[in-house]
Amino acid sequence: MLLQNTLKSFGTYCIFIWRVFSQPDKWSEFFKRYITEVVKLVIDSIPLVIVISIFIGAVCTIQMKLNIMSPLIPIYTVGLATREIILLEFSSSILCLILAGKVGSSITSEIGTMRVTEQIDALEIMGINSANFLVLPKVIAFVTFIPILVILSMFTSLLGGYLITIATGIVSPEIYVYGIQTMFTEWYVWYALIKSLFFAFVISSVSSYFGYHVTGGALQVGKASTNAVVTSSILILLLDVILTNLMLQ
Question: Are the beta carbons of 204 and 103 closer than 8 angstroms?
Fold first, then answer.
């Protein structure tokens, strides 16, 4: 029964995505909504990304220093290990898990509310492809601008580590910076950016799907938001395993 329901949901999702990626009826309206979604989904997420990244960078630096006790390991490894953690996992995977909660629930609630208040039905009556009209700008906006959030997260995380070295003196700031620069692999940055594109598509499309197919009232909208966040998080972790295996071997 579970497998049958999963396959049914996946089929419905595929049909939904097919409707979403049809050609917009009015490109001018699409670009207008695209700009609105960029502001709502990306620009409004910047403060959250900055605050979380600074503290995560600081915590990673402290943890690395506390766990590198051997005199055989050079002290600049603190900066190096912090950089690798941030580039490989935090600024792509963990950040997108956090954004799945903020952005994903916001998308589901917005579209779900439109569904239960029959605004989507009104669009359909007017002959508008509601899936394309409502969802495509959200998906394109989030996917195209997620690299900016990831790069911002990388910078502010490393900055957080630098600031904690100044504030606590656990490591010399100069040694920390030297560790960040040591054995730098440019591919890790591209790896994080490529992963984030997949994660952004999952967050925006899955959240839109759950909101679009809400039935009932306000209580069901809340349940759909929870289901969207949980499903997006599971898919992000699954994709993380697959992409890591494909891209880092």
Answer: yes
Cβ-contact 212, 16 below 8 angstroms? yes
pLDDT above 90 (res 69): no
Residue with tokens 């309206």: 29
DSSP-based helix, strand, coil % in the chain, nearest 5: 85, 0, 15
Count of beta carbons in the 10 Å neighbourhood of residue 113:
15
For residue range 79-121, list pLDDT tens digits in order: 999 999 999 989 889 999 999 999 999 999 999 999 998 898 8
Tokens of 13: 């999702």
Q: Say if CB 22 and CB 132 are below 8 A apart.
A: yes
| Six-digit token string for 211 | 């909101």
Exposed/middle/buried for residue 114 (C-beta within 10 Å: 0-12, 13-18, 19+): buried
Across 75-111, b (16+ Cβ under 10 Å) vs e yields bbbbbbbbbbbbbbebbbbbbbbbbbbbbbbbbbbbb
**Cα dihedral across residues 102, 106, 108, 109: positive or negative:** positive
pLDDT tens-digit readout, 204-231: 999 999 999 998 888 899 899 999 999 9
pTM confidence score: 0.91
Q: Are 116 and 218 in contact (CB under 8 A)?
A: yes
| 136 Cβ neighbours under 8 A, 6+ residues apart | 20, 21, 24, 30
What are the C-alpha distances in Å from 22 to residues 16, 18, 25?
Answer: 10, 7, 9
